[in-house]
């Protein structure tokens, strides 16, 4: 993701596309090739296991895809599976881990937020216990923290590029057919005409609010909206709640270095911290 997020001259001068002047496409092909090789090995191992022991009911994504291949080999084959696993890994790895890191950084530098989140977790599920999926609906303040994190730190600040299918006029401007369009979710989440104190981390703004990240409220669209909304949204939301809640409820935290946390952002496709969060967990 770091390689893909580097500024690329080809984005501004398409005529250079075949030349690949910065070598980004070449390096990306090498990285993707290594991942495809890893997935190919995983598939081979799973097929061998199924051959020796029969179709085990592991009920994971790979087994499901292999079952579909056996039933409808003309619709999906091994190459499709490898490409799909590549998409899932790339799209779901950095985005979720970055969001969790941002959430922890915001919570640790806002002691009152941390205190209130711990009080809610202690009251609802008990101190030291991991959060389960069934608990999420009963933790409104934890939900508010996650929403506020998505508002300030959308996983993909410009979402995924769109391509215009026909000439269209928007607010007096003509967007020509074939143009690439980027949606600045980062700026939308910090729009002062929509959000009070837009650059401050205030989870309380979402308490009692119906605004959500699922693509229905256009002032908060970290996953996009419409038909092209991120398909990983349901899993990502659950995982962030589960991991963040469990980390807050199971550990006390101490920063490795005294002082304020560096909250600078690093340019790229995904929104990373310029300086990784360094915190020491202490079992409660």
UniProtKB/TrEMBL annotation:
MF terms in GO: heme binding; iron ion binding; monooxygenase activity; oxidoreductase activity, acting on paired donors, with incorporation or reduction of molecular oxygen
Residues in the signal sequence: none
Alphabetical UniProt keywords: Heme, Iron, Metal-binding, Monooxygenase, Oxidoreductase
SUPFAM superfamilies associated with the record: Cytochrome P450
The organism's place on the tree of life at top rank: Eukaryota
Heme found in the keyword field: yes
Any Pfam family hit: p450
Binding locations of heme: 230
Cofactor or coenzyme needed: heme
InterPro entries, sorted: Cyt_P450, Cyt_P450_CS, Cyt_P450_E_grp-I, Cyt_P450_sf
Iron keyword on record: yes
Membership in a protein family: Belongs to the cytochrome P450 family.
PANTHER family hit by this protein: CYTOCHROME P450, FAMILY 76, SUBFAMILY C, POLYPEPTIDE 5-RELATED, GERANIOL 8-HYDROXYLASE-LIKE
Full protein name: Geraniol 8-hydroxylase-like
Naturally occurring in which organism (per UniProt): Davidia involucrata
